[in-house]
Design goal:
This protein has 488 residues and is of the alpha/beta class. It is built from 17 helices and 24 strands. Strands 1, 2, 3, 4, 5, 6 and 18 form a seven-stranded mixed sheet that branches. It has a five-stranded antiparallel sheet with strand order 20-21-24-23-22, with helices on both faces. A four-stranded parallel sheet has the order 10-9-8-14. Helix 6 (84-102) packs across helix 10. The longest helix has 20 residues, at 2-21. The protein is globular, with a radius of gyration of 24 Å.
């Protein structure tokens, strides 16, 4: 309970400190501009300053456009400040713990190795705390006007920044990212999100994660290695639904070995507190049960952060999955508006690399007219548990449903040298191959460093390489990459 309160306060204090470091509006614009906000116009205004926004803004500014960006949070977006990057820095501590334990009896005595959570958090913050200033400095140097505050639409080509006036643009790019999905149960306000989790200076003993997705599994694996008792509740039969079922089950079993419990077909009903602990009421098969925890973490997915933009004022169509756009990332209802990243309803998965290239595509289309479409072939994704679970392309059932004549190259790689070397026995690969063309339809990998290997398969899919082509790779040995040919 105390850790939750501390995390929330520290998160708010950190954000406040970062805001104070940003250039105030009156400094970003000259006095005449401040006195006549309503006449301030740009070729492009970008809402949000995550990776999609930064790439689009810099590309358009380099082409000579007048560009402004605005965000109410410190610049950097989820990945750099509240997601991928700091999360993987925390994972490094868990990797060390796990690696030492796997080598017990093989020359390593791990008993005295432990995670100092406060120091690990400080290590992650050594990266995140400098990113907003670094990103803003880069935008400034490229001639982009950097604005701060809460923005919403005031017309089809106009935004209003709270307390600062209105700004007009020939084009507006919505790149506001995503936020935790609202949880509609009594006591939902007691949930801690991933941002707060990564700002806590002490880790509670008992942690309950809500939802069977990326956040729950990744942070669950970190917390368990740091000494917490971890449970995940998932309302479905199958967690991590986007990944290969066989490999997910292997990962679940591996998690249970190190203290990450999973409760399937379990729904959250309410969260309460008695001032000492949280009492979480769940339901399974029509029966309710009270679980007790010191921290309850939101891992129930994310939704586009667009509901406060006053989209109706700009005639912008949107739904639960984001801004409705055409194949060029242009709004279906307002041609002056484009959208990219998690805020846009596209065929791309909600991943940072996708947001980056969607930002570039949107910028290109705004600059040159609609000519470029995003290419989503061969985009890999990874769950950075320990070991990591990765995917690119189709699942086996998807390939069959699409009518492909497939071959599945399946391997238990737990006894292969690259995994034997680090003591990991939980490792496997499943590669979906089109028999007729000898090309990769999908690749699914579970094992140490397979987050690197999956990129080879993604490249092969983008370039239409055959398995014969991949087997021609002459890799450094002994490296994990040298296993590629044997996986096929």
């Amino acid at each position: 309970m105390q850790a939750t309160a501390v995390s929330s306060v520290r998160s708010a204090q950190c954000l406040a400190r970062q805001f104070k470091k940003r250039v105030p509006m009156a400094q970003a614009l000259n006095a005449a501009e401040v006195n006549d906000m309503n006449e301030r116009s740009f070729d492009l205004i970008v809402l949000g300053v995550g990776m999609a926004a930064v790439n689009a803004a810099n590309k358009c500014a380099a082409a000579g456009w007048s560009v402004a960006v605005v965000d109410e949070l410190p610049y950097g977006g989820t990945c750099a400040l509240r997601g991928c990057d700091p999360k993987k820095m925390l994972r490094r501590g868990a990797e060390i713990i796990d690696g030492a334990r796997l080598m017990q009896g093989k020359g390593i005595e791990p008993n005295d190795i432990a995670i100092n959570w406060a120091d690990l958090i400080a290590f992650a913050q050594s990266f995140t705390d400098r990113m907003p200033e670094k990103i803003e400095g880069g935008l400034d140097s490229n001639g982009v006007t950097t604005l701060h505050g809460t923005a919403q639409f005031a017309g089809e080509d106009t935004i209003e920044i709270e307390g600062q006036g209105r700004f007009q643009a020939n084009h507006i790019l919505i790149a506001t990212g995503a936020k935790p999905r609202p949880v509609d149960v009594p006591g939902a306000e007691h949930l801690t999100n991933s941002t707060e989790f990564m700002r806590m200076d002490a880790l509670p003993k008992r942690i309950l994660f809500i939802g069977g997705g990326f956040v729950s599994f990744e942070f669950g694996h970190i917390a368990a290695r740091a000494g917490s008792e971890v449970q995940i509740i998932d309302r479905g039969d199958r967690p991590l639904k986007a990944f290969d079922t066989n490999l997910v089950e292997k990962l679940v079993a591996r998690g249970e070995e190190i203290g990450v419990g999973l409760r399937r077909r379990t729904s959250l009903k309410s969260i309460a507190t008695d001032g000492v602990e949280f009492i979480v009421t769940v339901e399974k098969n029509g029966e309710t049960e009270d679980l007790h925890a010191d921290l309850v973490v939101h891992g129930a997915g994310r939704v586009p952060e667009i509901d406060r933009l006053n989209l109706s004022a700009a005639n912008i169509e949107a739904g639960d999955k984001g801004i409705a756009v055409n194949e060029y990332l242009q709004s279906l209802s307002n041609p002056k508006i484009y959208a990219a990243g998690d805020a846009a309803n596209t065929h791309g998965p909600p991943l940072t690399p996708v947001a980056v290239f969607e930002g570039k595509v949107a910028a290109s289309n705004m600059l040159k007219g609609n000519q470029t479409k995003p290419d989503y072939r061969g985009v890999p994704s990874a769950v950075f548990t320990i070991p990591e679970l990765t995917r690119v392309g189709m699942l086996e059932e998807e390939a069959e449903e699409a009518g492909h004549n497939i071959r599945v190259a399946e391997n238990d790689t737990g006894n292969w040298y690259s995994n034997l070397r680090v003591g990991e026995t939980c490792a496997a690969t499943r590669i979906i191959i089109d028999k007729d063309t000898d090309t990769i339809l999908g690749a699914h990998l579970l094992g140490p460093e397979y987050g690197e290997i999956i990129n080879f398969f993604g490249l092969a899919m983008r370039l239409s390489l055959t398995t014969r082509d991949l087997k021609k790779l002459v890799a450094a040995y002994p490296s994990v990459g040298s296993d590629l040919g044997s996986m096929l």
